[in-house]
Every structure is written in structure tokens, then in C-alpha cells.
Protein: Glycosyltransferase
Amino acid sequence: MAGRREKYGQSIRGYRIAGAIAIGVLLGCVFAFLYPSGFFSPQTRPLSKSNLQVDSSNCESTEKVNMMKSENRRLSEKNAELQKQVRELNQKLQVAEQGNGRAQEQQLVVSSQPQKAGPFGTVKSLRTNPPVLPDESVNPRLAKLLSEIAVNKEVIVALANSNVKSMLEVWFNSIKKVGIPNYLVVALDDTIVDFCKENDVPVYKRDPDENVDFIGKSGGNHAVSGLKFRILREFLQLGYGVLLSDVDIVYLQNPFDHLYRDSDVESMSDGHNNMTAYGYNDVFDEPSMGWARYAHTMRIWVYNSGFFYIRPTIPSIELLDRVADRLTKQPNSWDQAVFNEELAFPSHPGYIGLYASRRTMDIYQFMNSKVLFKTVRKDANLKKLKPVIVHVNYHPDKFPRMKAVVEYYVNGKQDALDAFPDGSV
Ligand SMILES: *[C@@H]1O[C@H](CO)[C@@H](O)[C@H](O)[C@H]1NC(C)=O
Structure:
């Protein structure tokens, strides 16, 4: 015990010396001097067992420095090794790119920042693609017009020529009644330009373009429908989200309040119930195959290319280009079929599919006339719901049915829909 006291006294002296000489030395060392009993515990480092001298703390620092130096050497070696691996991988990548066109597509994936996958059930793929950088130079006149009309960079767009003048009137009157400000008629002839101006309807006529104008003036229903894919491109390039609308549509609420905006294309469906609109497993039966007679197929009723919301993204513009290109090269094709094929078919040998995200609109909010006349008007609950729009796409007597829809949903005439057959006769 006496020895202990003696050493205790020595340590106080050592502390004073250390305080005088080693101000600014690591705080941890100073603490060691403050608790001298610690130096006699079994865990104490060998160096501390010697007489407490200022030197001892210096030795300890030196030891730490040495340890850090060796740690540093180790990390440098590891770093060099990793750099070597990166070099090797880059070389492999370059070789792959040179030998193979597909490697360029791969590189997009390789160069995007890798992420760890989160826990089970939390991972979500990219579905909302980034918008393109607006390019006003593609059409300064349209850019100026849209900057005045659009709301939140969104606009309803309809193409019209004189053949659809009466329906156009019901169309824009329903839009005005709801109070939707952001809509635009793309006039395909001068009669429609004048008609819109008379009625205070925002109108745009494209600069003359022989190919387009010929179809626009004289084209039938399907030919005009094909035109829109060319015309829409500029709207997207200018950075606008477009709700493309045929004119055989009655607006009952503002559709912009009912969009999800999470997909490149958000479209109304030609489906007439949940299954047909949202997709189902349709089992095909081939009895001669015996045990394997049932073949499962994925089915969905087509999207209606007369009413869809399209975001200004690269996949959206690629879709428009693909459809327009095919409609030109295959003159007898139907734009709605082409539109759906491009959206639906996956890549396969000799073909690269379109990587666009898509969403089917609610069939009771964005209602086609089959849903209305076959189901909704006969269902006590469904007939109380007010759709956002009704598209008279399934019936050739469009004009009287459009007016009946207005009577029923806007003017509250309960029997306005009753006179019409489910289908056409
Ligand atoms: C149809 O789908 C909607 C939305 O998912 C759902 O609320 C409704 O119950 C479904 N109706 C039927 C008859 O399955």
C-alpha cells in the first residue's frame, strides 16, 4: 500500500509536469494522468507500467501514429486493388460496346446510379418518367398560344374539321359549362377556325403542310384520327401534358382533377366492366391437347385512342412517332389498333417493344357509351354517379346520344337516356 501511495505522489508530480510541458497534447492522455489508479490495473498498457514520465504519453502517441500509418498503408493497398478492378470492368465494357450494338442500351443501365434493393415489399420500379426539356424552337407560335391557355402545363386538345361541327359545339359547350379554361381546338379547315372564333373557343391552325392538310380537309374519321399523332408531337416537345380528346365527348367534371399523372399514357378504356377494362386471364381451350388443353392468355380491351392523357416524356414521344410511322407505311391500318399494339407488345426477336408506362382510367369516371347504355342507365346505384366525361364511341348516332347525355346529367332529365337501344340497330 505504501508503494501505491508513493506512486500516487509521483503521478501527481507527473501530472504537473505533463500539464506544464504537454499542453495541447491529446485530451485522452491528460485524462489518463488524472486517474493514476488506472495505470495499475491489469488492462493497463505495458508502457504505462514504467515510471510515469512525460515520455510515456509521447510513446503512446507514437504508437498510435504507427498504428494509423499501417492502417493507412492497408487502405491504400485496398484502394489500388479496387481501382484495378474498375479499370478491368471498364475495359470489359468497352469491348462489349465495340462488338455489340445492344451494349449501348445496356450502358444506360450500367451508368445509372446503382441502388441497394430495400426490404421485402418496399421496392417500386420507375413508372413516372422525367418530362422532356421544353423546346420552344419547334413551334414558337404554338408555344406562345399554349403559354396563355394551359394550366399547370396541361391542356385538352381536339382536332376538328367541318364534318364534326355540330358535335364540336356540344363538346365545347359542355367544357365551358364545367368551367374548364385549358382547352384548344386544332382546326383542320377555315370553317372551324371561324366557328371557334365566333364562339370564343381557343383555336389553333397549323402552318400549311401539304401532306397533313390533304388528310385534314378531306379525310374520313380514321384518317383524321391518324393525324393527331403527328400534331401532338409538338405539344409534347414544348413540354405540355395533353389530354387528347375526340369531339364525341361530353364533359361533366374537370378531368384534370381526376388524373393520376404517374404514367406516360393514361387512357380511357373500351372495356365494359372491370375484367375487360383492367385485364384478365382468358383461358383458351384446345381439347385435342388432352392434359394440356388449357392455355392461359392475358387479355385487355383496347385503350380508346380518342381520349387519353399523355405526359411529355421520351417514351410518349416515341409512341407518337411509332404510331405515325406505321400509319403512313400501312395505309389501311386503324390508328387505335396500332396505338394499342405499340403499347402492348413486348420485345421479342427482331422487335424492340415500347417501354412506356400506362394506366387504365376508371371506367365509371371516364365512361364509354357501352358502359352507359348497357349497364349504368339500368343500375340504380351506378346511374346516380356523375362521370367525369362520357364518350359516345360505341354508337353511330353520336349527336342525339351526346345531347341525351347532357339532358340526363346536366339538366337532370331522368328519362333522357331511355329511348335509345343498348347497341345500334
Ligand atoms: C371494380 O373495380 C373497382 C375498382 O377496383 C372496385 O371498387 C369494384 O368493387 C369492382 N367491381 C366489381 C363488380 O368487381
About this structure: The pocket of 2-acetamido-2-deoxy-beta-D-glucopyranose is lined by residues 274 (CB under 6 Å).
